[in-house]
Amino acid sequence: MKIVSRNEELLRDALSRIPQSSSRTSLSSSNKLIRFEDISAAAFKIQCGVQKTPCMYSRLSKQYGMDIYLKKEFLQYTGSVKERGVLYLLTSLPQDQQRKGVIVASDSNFSMAVAYHASELRIPVFVIMSTSTSPARVKTCREYGAMVISYGTTAKDSQTHARRLAQENGYLYLEEEDSAVYLSGLGTVGLELYEQVPKLDAVIFPAGGHCGLLAGSAAALKHLNPHISVIGVESESFPVLQQSLKAGHPIEDQACSNHHFYGDVSGLCFGSNSLQLTGKLVDKVVAVREEDILVSMLRLLEYERATVDAEGAIGLAALVAGKLPELKGKRVAIVICSGNLELRLLQQCIARALTLDNRVCRFSLVLSDSPGDISKLLEILAREEARVLDIKQERTFVTSELFTVEVTCTVETRDKIHTAQLRNALLERYPTAAWTER
Asked: Any idea which architecture 36-78+201-216+229-353 has in CATH?
């Protein structure tokens, strides 16, 4: 049965102005109308290959004054929502191309999804990575079953080599784009959200250059209920989507491709299909600071036991930053789309987030170099229930009078209020105490 609504007219109008030519040489970016039936067909076809991830009520709801539901796409096998679009893309390839194989050239979530699902479908898959790629990413793709080749020192070198291998051997060179097939696969998130959370008021998605998830899901949600507010969130450091929407075409001259911390959020705007759909169907796009993303990562780890990367945390960061006050008291879903945070970044991100959240602080003060003075300081810290993380003493390079010692303490507190109480208590006893501002 064909389902028709006035939203199909919006979709058709959104795609009517898309240029016919494309700079992509991998899979032709189809300008066919992305219909609700296409997204439904994708959901049926990939249902046995990807997880129907939970969308759970969050303990963060009370903190931000709204009913928050988290769509946990980081629980997919490769830790990313990109599996949905990739699986539908691969299963839609002609059989002769499936026999020849596919090739990708990056260390992104898209490439890892291609490596895994192509192997599961018994499609030969090759991943070209630069020599600067982290060993963990190389190991993961090999474990998924892909043939991984290290080539070149930059991503551009790897892409050039991949295209040459594709031409010489008949592989299909794949890179993330906004073909109707790929967007339909990503749009299945919108279908599941509508089914899992009744009476939704708004849904928050990661945005940035790779806004296929935002565009595809908006197509599904706006068809099912035009009154659901669809919101995209990107980084203030790389406002690629906002700039592209303002210009009316994808921005191609950004010097921000694949920033190490931000991942796909900092990528170039990759296509007119998703850009036009976003302009027509998305209600709002906001930008957040790096500090807000880091605190959001901390909140998800503490409240949801979820270890996510910047792309996964950026949706919640809009609430952390107070960018969406109109959602107070509403029922809101947030898509946590990626959990591929490298271990070497985890400790650095959490440590910085604790400082930004006013829960780790540092102060210095000068004491008399006599037995018992440091004990008195520790007594104050114990009375104020501050946990000492580190304490250092400096005698040689102290510029104050002789027989004094400069003590620098790093302590952990419960929250911002506790930190203020500790600071007041110390200043009362040590008026010259100096606090290190974050």
From this structure: 3-Layer(aba) Sandwich (3.40)
Residue pLDDT, tens place only, 95-141: 999 999 999 998 899 999 999 999 999 999 999 999 988 899 999 99
* DSSP strands (E only) in 196-325: 202-206, 229-235, 284-288
* Verdict on whether the full-model pTM lies above 0.85: yes
Same fold for the domain at 36-78+201-216+229-353 and the one at 359-436? no
- For 438, other C-beta atoms within 10 Å of its C-beta total 12
Give residue 153's identity as a one-letter amino acid code. T
Amino acid at the residue 94: P
Q: Outline where DSSP puts E strands in 109-182.
A: 125-129, 147-150, 172-173
**Pairwise CA distance, residues 254 & 238, whole Å:** 9
Nearest to 182 by CA among 337, 64, 26, 291: 26
Q: Which helix (H) or strand (E) holds 368?
A: strand 360-368
Give the right CATH number for 81-174 from 1.20.1250.20, 3.40.50.1100, 3.30.70.3270, 3.30.2350.10.
3.40.50.1100
Is 209 in contact with 264 (CB distance < 8 Å)? yes
Among candidates 257, 256, 262, which has minimal Cα distance to 297? 262
Could you tell me the two tokens for 162? 């991949």
119 SS3 class: helix
Indicate the range of 16-25, 72-81, 169-178 predicted with least confidence: 16-25
From the number of C-beta atoms within 10 Å of its C-beta (0-12, 13-18, 19+), residue 405 rates as middle
In this structure, the strands spanning 360-368 and 404-412 are: antiparallel
What burial class does residue 252 get, using C-beta atoms within 10 Å of its C-beta: 0-12 exposed, 13-18 middle, 19+ buried? exposed
- Assigned fold of 359-436: Alpha-Beta Plaits (3.30.70)
Q: What is the pLDDT of residues 7-56, one digit of tens each?
A: 444 444 444 433 333 334 445 444 566 889 999 999 999 999 999 999 99
Domain ranges, ordered by start, for the chain = 36-78+201-216+229-353, 81-174, 359-436
Would you tell me how many other CB atoms lie within 10 Å of the CB of residue 299?
23
C-alpha to C-alpha distances, 398 to 74, 213, 365, 432, nearest whole angstrom = 51, 57, 11, 14
Q: Per-residue pLDDT tens for 180-223?
A: 999 999 999 999 999 999 999 999 999 977 889 999 999 999 99
In angstroms, the CA 216 to CA 88 distance is: 13
Q: Which helix (H) or strand (E) holds 161?
A: helix 155-169
